[in-house]
Design goal:
Largest sheet: 6 strands, mixed
Number of helices: 9
Shape: globular
CATH topology of the domain at 125-149 and 169-321: Rossmann fold
Strand content: 15-25%
CATH architecture of the domain at 125-149 and 169-321: 3-Layer(aba) Sandwich
């Protein structure tokens, strides 16, 4: 049986250690999407991670890792531990994503193409929201705006209370790297780089020292069942393992928001179920997750849904409740 999953609880952003006094480098959009192919200058050295902690939360209710269940089994949101009586209800928690009448229009020659029209959405801390739409619906545009990879042309977007339109490109890059953990459909791992270094890379942009980067990256990989794959490059990993590395990379900075863009799109049904189980574990531990997908079955795993079509965002759950 593989190592048990232990998802670390959501915490605040980790600031650079005192050992690193150099100015913090600014990650570019290209770096965020991990498309670089250069090999790190320093050789990869496998860290010796500590033993994972005992199973907690919903993982404790099953025999072994959550993804050891049949591929058709997805952890139910109502199987999580009872809510903490000291924790305010979702409706009273602080917003992480606030979109108010947001639009995005692309100017193509003499033609204006509206890709997103008057979108309004609030995602509060600890929520798991799926945004569902077909190809060409505007969901990628919405994902890019939420992920600070693009800017709205109208409306207001606040990320963890920060109005995005007021930020310079450098400030936006820093907010993005510290606040959002990305999980992409195509994994976007550095191709000739070990799993350990792939996961540690976002910490480099936060000025975290090499030793601490490797310790934190190794601990996160171990907790996702990849302790024996630390020094494997992506071509030595299965699709499901590569996506787990991508999830570890998203978690290692302890972000306020996990933004998952079609995370099961390149996976078979069993590996896709594993990834969804991990997302449920993260949600149960208090993480805020926005899932972008075209697949209604995948979206059904989230407790809350938004639909997008022809650039228009609707919230059917809220409409029914009203």
């Amino acid at each position: 049986m593989s190592e048990p999953i232990v998802i670390p609880p959501a915490m605040g952003t980790v600031e650079p250690t005192a050992a690193s006094d150099a100015p913090e480098p600014v990650p570019t959009t290209e770096a965020v999407q991990a498309t670089a192919t250069t090999q790190p200058a320093e050789p990869v050295a496998e860290a010796a991670p500590a033993e994972p902690a005992p199973l907690v939360g919903i993982a404790a209710a099953v025999d072994g890792p959550v993804w050891a269940r049949p591929a058709t089994s997805v952890v139910s949101a109502d199987s999580a531990d009872p809510p903490d009586p000291m924790e305010p209800p979702v409706q009273l928690r602080e917003p992480i994503v606030e979109l108010e009448h947001v639009g995005r229009t692309y100017h193509l020659g003499h033609v204006d193409v509206p890709a997103l029209i008057d979108a309004t959405l609030t995602v509060r801390r600890g929520e798991f929201v799926a945004i569902v739409g077909p190809s060409g619906s505007g969901k990628s545009t919405l994902m890019n705006i939420i992920g600070c990879l693009d800017r709205a042309t109208s409306g207001l977007y606040r990320l963890a209370g920060t109005p995005i339109s007021t930020l310079s490109d450098d400030e936006l890059a820093r907010v993005r790297s510290r606040t959002i953990g990305f999980v992409f459909q195509s994994y976007n791992l550095l191709p000739r780089t070990s799993a350990l270094e792939n996961v540690a890379t976002p910490l480099m942009y936060q000025g975290v020292g090499r030793r601490e980067r490797h310790e934190r990256a190794a601990a996160t990989l171990v907790r996702l069942g990849l302790g024996d794959r630390l020094n494997h490059v992506p071509t030595e990993l299965s699709g499901g393992q590569q996506q787990r590395v991508a999830i570890a990379r998203a978690l290692v900075t302890d972000p306020a928001l996990i933004l998952a863009d079609e995370p099961t799109g390149n996976l078979d049904s069993h590996s896709g179920a594993e990834v969804m189980n991990i997302l449920h574990e993260l949600h149960a531990s208090g993480r805020t997750i926005v899932l972008i997908t075209h697949d209604a079955k995948v979206a059904s795993a989230a407790p809350r849904h938004a639909l997008i079509a022809d650039g228009l965002l609707t919230l059917p759950d809220e409409a029914v409740a009203a």
